[in-house]
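Per reviewer request, we include the raw input and output of the structure prediction for the construct analysed in the revised manuscript.
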Amino acid sequence: MKQIIREQFLKITPQQCWDYFATPVNLNDITPRDMQFEITSLPSDKMYAGMLITYVVRPFLRIPFSWCTEITHIREGVYFVDEQRVGPFRIWHHEHHFKAVEGGILMTDILYYDIGKSVLGWLAGLLGVHRRVHEIFEFRRLALEKKFNAVSDGGNR
């Protein structure tokens, strides 16, 4: 299983931060355009624990993948966790943490993911899935920096 931890400082208030990240349609802003991200089912404008969000995404070679995410844990203003229920990964567990600090928010993403040991997982590894996941997070960092005039430490740990 792979782990990615990224931190980014955002020059926004805690309320602005939560309002943005707790609104699933904002995923469109922080997902690379070439992935053709499309939400197909969204039961509410704001997140809640147990919420299922379905979408189609094309992360590799323009091949469409149906993806279903469940918001498994949420503590308003502090963190939420999304987990893939249906999709291309064997495991996808993504924690989003928000901490008020002087001048803004320190956002920390912790991602655990696994492509599996099957032939398809092996092929995905050859096709660069790990590199692509890092590219997606880098796109997200740059998009948030631009949107919120953020300053980042580069994000990798």
